[in-house]
Amino acid sequence: MSERTQAPRGTFDVLPDEEPAREAIVREAQRILGSAGYRRIETPIFEATELFARSVGEATDIVRKEMYTFDDGGGRSVTLRPEGTAPVCRAYVEHGMHKLAQPVKLWYLGPFFRREAPQKGRYREFFQVGAEALGSDDPAVDAELILLLADLLDAIGASARLRLSSLGTPDTRAAYRERLTAYLREHEDELSPDVRERIDLNPLRAFDASDRGTQRVMARAPRLFDALNDDDREHFEAVTAMLDDADLRWELDPSLVRGLDYYTRTVFEFESPELGAQSGVGGGGRYDGLVEKLGGPPTPGCGWAAGIERMLLAAAAQPTPVDGVDLFVAFAKPHYRREAMRIANEVRQAGLHAQLELAGRSLKGQLKQADRIGARYVAILGDEGAQLKDMESGEQHEVEVGALPAAVLRQRPGG
Ligand code: HAM
C-alpha cells in the first residue's frame, strides 16, 4: 500500500456528524444579522497581496509571516485572504457603494488562512462569520455591532467576557506611539529580545508580550486610552452608554491590542474561558481611515469577525438539530430496485426525506439500516404489493404503491 496523504498541518475536515453544530451557528448568525438589516456579501478567497499589506499593515504578524502568498502565474502576487475587512472595503470602493444609503451593512462567512502555529482553537484554515457597517461614524453603529455579536454568542450558548477600549485617531496614536517608543527605549534591558527588536516597528505589541519582564515594564507604561482627545472620548462614552442601556456587561481594557493596524477609536474582543490560550472568540472595531486608504472616498467603518471553530469550543452545548428520515424504501428482491428508486424520488418530490436501499442488504439488514438512520416509516416492496411499517409502533399495513407519498404525509404530525 502506498503512503497515506493527510490534510495539511493546521487544517481539518469537517465530518458529517460535526456539520449540524456549525450549521446551527451559521443559521443563528444569519437570523441575528439579517434582523438588523445586514446583507450577505461574498468576496474572493484570494486577493492582490497589496490589499492586505496596505490595510492590515506591513508591521503586523499577519502580513510579516502568516500570509499564504504566491505568484498567480502571470507575475502578480496574490494572497489567500487572512481576514475579511480589507476585501469588504475593497468591494465597497470597487462597486461604488458610497452611492448607496449609508451605512452599508454587510456580513460574510467563509474560510480564512493564516500560517500560525496550530493548536486548539488556532488553525491555518478557519472559518469566520463577520459583519461590517460602512459609511457612518455614529457610535450607535459600534454599539449595535457589539450587541449583535453578544446576541450571537448568547444564542449559541457561549459565555464570553467583553473587553473594550478606544484607540483614538491616527494623530493621537502617532503622538502616543512616540511617547511609548521613548518609554520602551528607557527600559530596553528589561524587555524580551523579541519586543526589543520591534520597538520601532510595532511598539504596541509589547502589551501583548507573555514574558514577565516585559509585562512588568508594560504595567507602568503610558496608556493610549489616557491620551484620547475630547471627541474620541465622547464617542467612546456614547458607545458604552448604549451598551449599558442594553445591560451588556463590558470591561475597559486600555491594553487591548488587536493584531491589525487599521483600527481607530473603538476596539473590542469577546473572550471565552473555554478557549485557554486562544481566548478571543470574536472581535473587531472601528476603522475610519481604511476605505480612503484603499482609494475610496473618506468613509468611516466598523465591524467584527468571530471564528466558527472558536465559537464551537466556547458553546456549552452543541446545538444539533435532528434531521428526520420520513421513509426508508426497502425491497424483498433486487427486482424491485427500480420501483424503490421511483417511489423514493416521488416521496422526495412531495417534500419528504426518503432514502432507499443502496447496498444490496437482505430484507432483515434493510430493516436494521432503517432503524439505524431513524426512519419513521419503512415501505417494503414485495410480490404481494407494498407494506408500510410504522417504526415507532411496529404496526404494518398494506398500501397501494402509488399512494405511498400520501400515506406517509398523512401519518406525519400535522399531515
Ligand atoms: P481577528 O481578531 O484577527 O479579527 O479575527 C477574528 C476572529 O477570527 C478571532 O476572534 C477568532 O475567533 C478567529 N480567528 C482568527 N485567527 C484564527 C485562527 N488562526 N484559527 C481559528 N480562528 C481564528 C479580524 O479578522 C478582523 N477582520 C475583525 C474585524 C472585522 N474588525 C473589523 N471588522
Write up what this structure looks like.
- The chain has 415 residues and is an alpha+beta fold.
- It has two domains: 237 residues, BirA Bifunctional Protein, domain 2; 87 residues, 3-Layer(aba) Sandwich (Rossmann fold).
- The protein is built from 14 helices and 16 strands.
- Helix 1 packs antiparallel against helix 5.
- It is elongated.
- The two termini are 53 Å apart.
- The mean pLDDT is 93.
- Histidyl-adenosine monophosphate binds next to strand 6, strand 10, strand 11 and helix 11.
Q: Could you name the key traits of this structure?
A:
alpha+beta, BirA Bifunctional Protein, domain 2, 2 domains, 8-stranded mixed β-sheet, 5-stranded mixed β-sheet, 16 strands
> What is the overall pLDDT average?
93
Helix content: 25-40%
- 3D shape: elongated
CATH topology of the largest domain: BirA Bifunctional Protein, domain 2
How far apart are the first and last residues' alpha carbons, in Å?
Answer: 53 Å
State the total count of DSSP E strands. 16
